[in-house]
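Allow me, if you will, to draw on your knowledge of protein folds for a short while. The matter concerns a single protein, recorded as an amino acid sequence and a row of backbone structure tokens. Kindly check, if you would, that the fold set down in the tokens agrees with what the sequence suggests. You will find the record immediately after this paragraph.
***
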Amino acid sequence: MSASSLPLKHPERRDPAWLGRMAWAAAALVLLWPLLVLSEFKPWVLLEPGSLKPTLRFLGDFFPPALNPDFLALVARETWRTVAMATAGIALALVLAVPMALLSVRVLSVSGLTGRMALMPAVLRQAVRALLIVLRSVPELIWALVFVRVVGLGPTAGVLAIALTYGGMLGKVYGEILESGEAHATTSLLRNGSGRLQAFFYGLLPQNGAELTSYTVYRWECAIRSSAVLGFVGAGGLGQMMDSSMKMFNGSEVATMLLVFMALVALADRASSALRRALG
């Protein structure tokens, strides 16, 4: 046996961590298998004749896409409504997130400058954090179902649903970004008699502004995707129109709206990437 064949016959000599990696992979498989069984994950069902034939028939109806001028005008109107819903929802989410983020940040607490925070500021901080957990723990789809029954069908339910869920997400992440930044300038301003808002605008915001803006733009991009999904529960926009076409088994109209939706998400991604580069 030549020396060159040893690494192939004994891989552990080529990679000393080979046995450890195999052990971890086996342990992961042992842990993952019960989860797959519990979730009834059976992808092979898609290849059964009873499932495959209807799927192929429905996908075959996608071609060619619907290009009727009247239909395209309707799609354009609903697409604009979807973008407006996402933008208005993010704007309202900012109204909720910014004050709660400032209240939850320890570095802006005057009582915390000497060490342990006073009782009332500490209780208020924990209450705000608990409210943020409640807001973001309820999916926007659930909020939309609630608001559809309160305000009726239409974009208002979608705007409110995005505002509540994304308000919790933005507030939580804003607070973490501000807490992780350098606090020396902020604490110096507070120790010298500055107000909390002044300490935020002149101490925390300049060093964290780019990261805060980048995350906000990313959430706006996510809100565009969410607004289309919310349409399936009656919140209006492109999703509701797509839901109607799918119920009527009109694959050509669904194909057109899918193409428009993919282009919309791609444009939002390009816009957010351009803004991130500009913020540098």
